[in-house]
Design brief:
The radius of gyration is 16 Å and the shape is globular. The chain is built from three helices and four strands; from the N terminus they run E-E-H-E-H-E-H. By secondary structure, the protein is an alpha/beta fold. It has a four-stranded mixed sheet with strand order 1-2-3-4, with helices on one face. Helix 1 packs parallel to helix 2.
């Protein structure tokens, strides 16, 4: 793990859920570290990522995390503590910020496709 992006793993056996608490800056290095940890624990059942102690989010790191999670289809993930800006970025990418899984269209009204180029004109 990168010492500049500490990840503290908590094993909370509440509801058979493991919690991974992230702290500091969530950058590309932290995203790779989290993905490596999630790959090792993919059979742990339900996992929770706690972002409540992260003070800086890099949009690119969120993208890396989401792309990596797409390669872990059996993982059941929940999140907590994602602030409003990163949550909106995820919603724009059609990703549910509570599960980091693809959102259904009805969950993401701001992500509706542009039907006509005239929709882009103000």
């Amino acid at each position: 793990m990168n010492p500049s992006t500490p990840i503290q793993e908590e094993r909370e056996r509440l509801s058979a859920c493991s919690c991974i608490e992230l702290q500091g800056t969530f950058d590309a290095s932290a995203a790779r570290d989290v993905l490596a940890l999630l790959q090792r624990q993919a059979d742990a059942g339900h996992l929770e990522l706690d972002f409540s102690r992260v003070n800086t989010f890099q949009d690119f790191a969120l993208d890396l995390l989401v792309q990596g999670l797409a390669r872990l289809p059996g993982l059941h993930l929940k999140t907590r503590g994602i602030p409003s800006h990163p949550a909106r970025v995820l919603q724009y990418l059609s990703i549910d910020p509570h599960t980091l899984a693809p959102a259904r269209r009805s969950q993401c009204p701001s992500c509706s496709p542009v039907r006509d180029h005239r929709d882009l004109d103000d």
